[in-house]
């Protein structure tokens, strides 16, 4: 097996997986991911769905996505160990060191902060890269196209403002 | 705690959206494809924000373009159904901005996060804990947040706005995204710490 696949092979496989998941032979529903996070938080902290409206609203989607992402964890673990052989414990990505800083604390704090606002953003929008991009835009849903357009623009603008210029200091 | 976790599986199994095995199988493939193409990497997602790597938009555009055409035929033949999310304009705009900022800094999203944790990224695990607290805050604050998420413009799709020309719109959309995916320059940041090389297939 090749250690890595190209964007095209990856794109073909991902399209087939989207179709299988949508089809009645698969799950008869779209792929989604972000609902699982507030749902899992509610399970961890024992939030009663009868008391918290949002817990009741997301229970079904949250549970499905939780099981799906558990599968994703094992799929990725298997592939990182045996196929791509990229499994290693690491704290800072290479490109972060190149374009931001080499401080573990800085990377961990920024990760925590970004994870925090990422889930608030995804739940405000009602979806994330999986629900709005992969599944929403595949159905040509206007909501998915709005999300995709604004997210892509914000990603590029943030990338310009947040990181140092290539090959030098800010 | 164990009881609450096993309840997750009970809920998922009783939804009529595939058995636990099917859901885990879909997840396994999802994680495997993302890991194999390496698109969960910070260098691929934040790398797109820095315009150092175009793998993510190329793969996303192609997958969506191809899936949109395939999905249309599956739905027409009755083998799949639409599951369109509503246009909650306020929530969509503010949410997408917060999400985009977070994606550029974190270099992950909710689907690629678990993939990166599985390959040993501690910083992503810390980000996921941040996400758990974000989700907790959202659930607590939902009664106050909910009124700010509208107005709801309904579950529209682009083809439904062009009545009578749905098939044409879908084929043009799918073809356009596939063409764009090839036109986006094939720039890749190869991570020396992963001894990463360009893929051959």
Task: Please characterize this protein's 3D structure.
The complex is a heterodimer of chains A (170) and B (201). Chain A is an all-alpha fold and 170 residues long. Chain A is built from seven helices and no strands. In chain A, helix 6 packs across helix 7. Chain A is globular. The mean pLDDT of chain A is 94. Chain B has 201 residues and is mostly helical. The longest helix of chain B is centred in the middle third of the chain and has 24 residues. The N and C termini of chain B lie far apart (45 Å). In chain B, helix 4 runs antiparallel to helix 8. Chain B contains eight helices and no strands. The chains are: A mainly alpha (170), B mainly alpha (201). Chains A and B meet through helix 1, helix 2, helix 3, helix 4 and helix 5 of A and helix 1, helix 2, helix 3, helix 4 and helix 5 of B.
Outline of chain A, from the CA principal axes? globular
The proportion of residues forming helix of chain A, as a percent range, comes to 55-70%
How many individual helices of chain B? 8
Q: SS-based structural class of chain A? A: mainly alpha
Taking the sheet with the most strands of chain B, its summary is: none
Q: How much strand of chain B?
A: under 5%
Q: What's the mean pLDDT score of chain A?
A: 94
Shape of chain B: globular
Element order of chain B: H for helix, E for strand: HHHHHHHH
| Distance linking N and C termini of chain A | 42 Å
Number of strands of chain A: 0
Total strand segments of chain B: 0
Q: Report Rg of chain A.
A: 18 Å
Quick take:
Chain A is mostly helical. Chain A has seven helices and no strands.
Reconstruct the topology from this structure:
The complex is a heterodimer of chains A (170) and B (201).
Chain A: H1 7-22, H2 36-44, H3 53-83, H4 94-99, H5 104-125, H6 129-138, H7 142-162
Helix pairs in contact in A: 2-3, 6-7
Chain B: H1 2-13, H2 20-37, H3 42-49, H4 55-76, H5 89-106, H6 113-118, H7 122-145, H8 166-183
Helix pairs in contact in B: 3-5, 4-8
């Amino acid at each position: 097996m090749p250690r890595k696949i190209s964007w095209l092979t990856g794109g073909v496989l991902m399209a087939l997986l989207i179709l299988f998941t949508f089809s009645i032979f698969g799950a008869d529903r779209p792929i989604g991911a972000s609902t699982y996070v507030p749902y899992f938080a509610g399970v961890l902290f024992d939030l009663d769905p009868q008391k918290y409206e949002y817990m009741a609203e997301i229970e079904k989607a949250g549970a499905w996505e939780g099981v799906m992402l558990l599968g994703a964890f094992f799929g990725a673990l298997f592939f990182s160990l045996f196929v791509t052989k990229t499994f290693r414990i690491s704290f800072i990505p290479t490109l972060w060191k190149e374009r931001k800083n080499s401080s573990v604390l800085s990377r961990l704090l920024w990760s925590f902060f970004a994870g925090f606002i990422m889930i608030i953003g995804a739940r405000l929008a009602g979806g994330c890269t999986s629900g709005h991009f992969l599944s929403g835009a595949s159905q040509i849903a206007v909501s998915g196209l709005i999300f995709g357009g604004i997210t892509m623009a914000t990603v590029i603008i943030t990338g310009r403002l947040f990181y140092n210029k290539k090959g030098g200091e800010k | 705690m164990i009881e609450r976790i096993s309840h997750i599986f009970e809920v998922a199994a009783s939804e009529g959206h595939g058995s636990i095995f099917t859901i885990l199988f879909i997840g396994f493939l999802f994680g495997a494809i993302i890991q194999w193409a390496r698109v969960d990497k910070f260098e691929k997602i934040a790398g797109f924000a820095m315009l150092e790597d175009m793998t993510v938009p190329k793969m996303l555009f192609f997958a969506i373009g191809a899936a949109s055409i395939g999905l249309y035929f599956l739905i027409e033949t009755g083998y799949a159904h639409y599951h369109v999310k509503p246009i909650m304009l306020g929530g969509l705009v503010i949410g997408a901005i917060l999400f985009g900022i977070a994606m550029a800094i974190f270099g992950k999203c909710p689907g690629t996060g678990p993939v990166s944790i599985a390959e040993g990224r501690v910083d992503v695990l810390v980000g996921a804990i941040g996400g758990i607290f974000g989700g907790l805050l959202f659930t607590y604050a939902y009664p106050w947040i909910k009124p700010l998420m509208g107005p709801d413009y309904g579950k529209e799709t682009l083809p439904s706005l062009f009545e009578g020309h749905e098939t044409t719109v879908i084929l043009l959309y799918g073809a356009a995204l596939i063409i764009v995916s090839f036109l986006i320059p094939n720039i890749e940041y190869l991570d020396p710490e992963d001894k990463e090389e360009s893929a051959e297939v």
